Amino acid sequence: MAKEAKHKMYSFSTAGGKAGSQFVPYENLANAIVKKAVRDYQHSLIALHLNPNDEKAEARKHEVLVFFKGSWYKVLTGMDPVKLLKMARKQVEDNGWKRFDMSQD
Length: 105
Description:
Blueprint: H1 2-8, H2 24-50, H3 55-69, H4 71-76, H5 81-94
């Protein structure tokens, strides 16, 4: 049950997620793209926390922030990117800035 709650935070459905909907595969793809961007953002935050001079992590963070501000993000989901980034950052902070396995997402 706890795993379901974790995933609920990242529900980006655009067509209501109705069973049998022709859009479900596309929603799943859109969700995967946004989840990957969230994971990249979180990993860049952790890397920069551990080493503020990590240029690769800074570049990755910048790239992800550009994605969240862009039109492609708006096509994929209607979720407020500022709220999503705040939730992602809080999750990292609550985890003590440690790397955590998000491969189960």
